Amino acid sequence: MSELSFEQMLDESFKTIHNGEVVDGTVIDVKPDEIILNIGCKADGIISKSEYSNDQSLDLTTVVKVGDPMTVKVLKVNDGEGQMLLTYKRLAAEKGNERLREAYENKEVLKATVTQILGGGLCATVEEARVFIPASLVSDSYEKDLSKYEGQEIEFVISEFNPRRNRVIGDRRQLLVAERAERQKELFAKLQIGDTIEGTVKNVTDFGAFIDLGGVDGLLHISEMSWGRVENPKKVFQVGDVLKVLVKDINDTKVALSLKFPETNPWANATEDFAVGTVITGKVARMTDFGAFVELAPGVDALLHVSQISRAHVEKPSDVLSIGQEITAKIVDLNEADKKISLSMKALEEPEAQEYTEE
């Protein structure tokens, strides 16, 4: 039996490695754009920056140091120059995909940082595996600008898992919908008609404002915004305003709100404040051909009939009055039940002197 040469002994001391094999190694050198590993072969293995991370601005010397152990995958045993090409990124992504598969099958809630904003949604990375969250599944309401999510840590579930087609879809919306439903359930369990509750203006329309009560949206109709008249809700409220509102009605999941609190009702002391015979000052709020409506207080309009404007003949109110004009008149009638008040300016005028002729 012949003795082996030193070179043969050396060759046999190295293990044989194949493409696609997962191996362990030790870092023997690090440069900004590549890592060199000793993996127990005649040739050292090389990991390029692009095979370590998707971040091409990364300086590898800041994340890896000589002596670090690494588990990698062999891409090519010989690249033609006697070098062995390795990948860290792809092996990590495979492990990440397995993690995503488990999460998909178990309907597990994952938490990850948003790494990229795209026109159609967000990208998050779970253990080097990429998850795409379409814009329609980012929130439970439409969001035009997704840039605020960049760098944020968010929770989601995997709703579609097909790595072969590069389709791993995350869904954040269903978590928010479920969370909102739970908050609604809790709120409706304790919410009562007549309660005063704090809410935030979520949206303002021509007919009212939608108020977020903490998982439940209530409608503050334009007619319930004030005891007085509100012409345009958008001039009164802005999205984000915090209000204390009165729960006026609850119908299934619909909540009607009001800012007309009983203690501020201007008609509460009408018999005293607007007693017949009282001389009062108000502003002309609107006019018709038959008279002018005068605001005596927010929510209290009184009718000044055209026949009560002056002892002189007035064809129509706009001939002598204007919107916003302040007038003084006497209250000549009060119908508290129907919330109607009648005024007279004529009653404050001195009667014309009557002429008497002797026969």
Structure description:
The protein starts with 5 loop residues before the first helix and ends in a 15-residue tail after the last strand. The protein is mostly beta strands and 359 residues long. It is rod-shaped and about 125 Å long. Mean pLDDT is 87; it is low at 4-13 and 353-359. A 5-stranded mixed beta barrel has the order 1-2-3-5-4. It has a 5-stranded antiparallel β-sheet with strand order 8-7-6-9-10. A 5-stranded mixed beta barrel has the order 11-12-13-15-14. The protein has 4 domains: 24-105; 107-175; 191-258; 271-348. It contains 4 helices and 20 strands. This is Small subunit ribosomal protein S1. Belongs to the bacterial ribosomal protein bS1 family. It comes from Faecalicatena orotica.
The tally of beta strands, per DSSP, is 20
What is the strand arrangement across the widest sheet? 1-2-3-5-4
Estimate what percentage of residues fall within beta strands.
35-45%
Q: Detail the poorly predicted runs.
A: 4-13, 353-359
Task: Output the structural class.
Answer: mainly beta
| Count of the separate structural domains | 4
Radius of gyration: 40 Å
Helix % is 10-25%
Order of helices and strands: HEEEEEHEEEEEHEEEEEHEEEEE
Note the gap between the termini.
171 Å
User: What's the main sheet like?
Assistant: 5 strands, mixed, barrel
Shape: rod-shaped
Query: What is the averaged pLDDT score?
Result: 87
User: How many helical elements?
Assistant: 4
GO molecular function: mRNA binding; structural constituent of ribosome
GO cellular component, one term: ribosome
GO biological process, one term: translation
Protein name: Small subunit ribosomal protein S1
